[in-house]
Amino acid sequence: MKKRFIAMGMVIAMLLTGCAQNAADNQTETPQTQEAPLQEAQADDAASSDGEVITLTWLNHYAEAGKQAWVQSVKEQFEAKYDNVVLNIETVDADSHKTILQTKLASDDAPTIFDLSSNADLRIYNEAGYLADLSDFECLQNVDAGLLKEGQVDGKQVGIPVELSGYGVFYNVDIFNELGLEEPTTLSELKNVCETLKANGITPFATPFGESWAFSCYPRVLYDAVCWNNDGQFWAKLADRSLKFADSEDFKKQMQTVWDFHEYWGDDAFGTSWDSAQQIMANGEAAMIAHGSWAVDGITSYNPDINIGVFPMPVSEDPADRRMIKEPGQQLVLFNYQDEKVMEAARNLYNMIYSQDCMRVYAEEAHQMPSVPGDYNILPALAEIVNYPAEESFSEAGLPRNDPEHEDVLFETMLNAYTGSNFDVEALAKDLDAGFDNIKK
C-alpha cells in the first residue's frame, strides 16, 4: 500500500528502538502517591532527597500570546514551588509540531509532556508505548467528566484536555453595530452581511489559509455541523470506505458553500498566515473569521479593546440547521518514563496545571474555556459558547474522528481544490475517495 510521507514518518518513529522501545519493554505502573486531597498532593516535594535536579520538558505549539504567557507563568510557579525541578518550555509552530514530536520520539529526545489533538492521535501514540497511564492522577477529580472521555483509550486515561474548544464565526461587534448588521442565521443573510462589509471597504473574512492547520478550521465549521452532527459515525464510515465522499450530498453541498464565499476571503487568502489574520481582525481590516475559540486570545493580544462576538456558521436557508461546535481541546499527555522521580515531578506539574488557580489564569488572561469548571471571568464570546443551548450545539466528545493519515489526505486535497481559479465539487469528492481508498489498500 502506498503510504503518505508524514504517515510513514509516524510508523518509522514507532518502530525505531529509541525511547519508545524503552517505554514499551519496561512497562510499569505510574508511581503511586499517598491518598490525599489535591492541595496536599501539590505540596509534595518532587525533588529527590539527595538534591538531584530533575528536568522536565513541555513541548507545545501554542501560537497565541495569551497561551504562551500562561505556559510561562506555569513554569515560574512550578519552579518556585519545587526548587529542585527545572521545567523547560519548547514552543514550535503548529504545522511542524507533529514532525518535530515524531523526530524527538525517534531520537531518544522525548519531551516529558506534550499535547495531542484527538482520541485518534492518542490511540496511535499509546499503541507505540509512548504514553503513561494517568488514571490515578489526583487532578482528574477537578476536570469536567464530560471532557475526560476524549482522553481515554482502552479503559485508561492517557490524555487530559486543557480546555473546551468552540468552532464558529468570530466577528467584530463594533463593526457590525456601526453598519447596522445582525448575526446572520442563513446563508443568504450571511451573503448580505458580506456584501455590506465589502461595500464599506472591509474584508468580510480573515482567511489564514497560508497555514494548512488554520485552513482546516474553515470547512469544518460547515461539514461538522451538518455531516458529523447528523451521523456520529460519519468519519468512521469514510475511513472504512462503507461511505464515499461522492455519495454524501451533504458533504458536497457544504464544500460548495466554502467556494461560494471565496470572493469574500480577501486578496491573498492562501498567502495569509495565522498571525497576519489575527492582526487583520484586530485592526478592523476584516470583520469575521471562521475558526476555533483560541482566535479570541490571538485577536485580543493585538487589540485588547476589541469587542468580539460569535455565532454558529449558517449552513443552509434554515436557521435551525446551525450548530455551535464544541469539542475537548488539546490533550496533555505524559511520556511513559520509567524514572519514578521524573514521573512524580510530572504528577505534581499536572496537579498544578489542572488546579482552579492555574486555570483561572488560563481563562482570564489567556482567554480560554478551561476544562476545570469554575467561576471564571471569561470574555463574552467564550461565555456565549459555554452557555449555548445543548439542543443547538454539536458536541464532538468521544465520537470517532479521522486519524492523522486520513486528516492529512483530507486537508491537503481540499487545499489543492480551493487554490485554483475554478472549483469542481465532484472532482474534489473523487480525489478524496481516491486518497482514502489508497490508505485502505
Written description of the protein model:
By secondary structure, the chain is an alpha/beta fold. The chain has 2 domains: 201 residues, Periplasmic binding protein-like II (D-Maltodextrin-Binding Protein, domain 2, 3-Layer(aba) Sandwich); 207 residues, Periplasmic binding protein-like II (D-Maltodextrin-Binding Protein, domain 2). It is 46% helix and 14% strand. The protein contains 19 helices and 14 strands. Strands 7, 8, 9, 10, 11, 13 and 14 form a 7-stranded mixed β-sheet that branches.
Which class do the helix and strand fractions yield?
A: alpha/beta
User: What is the percentage of strand-forming residues?
Assistant: 5-15%
Major sheet details:
7 strands, mixed
Please work out how many helical segments DSSP would assign: 19
- Give me the CATH fold name of the largest domain: D-Maltodextrin-Binding Protein, domain 2
**Judging by the overall fold, what is the CATH architecture of the largest domain?**
3-Layer(aba) Sandwich
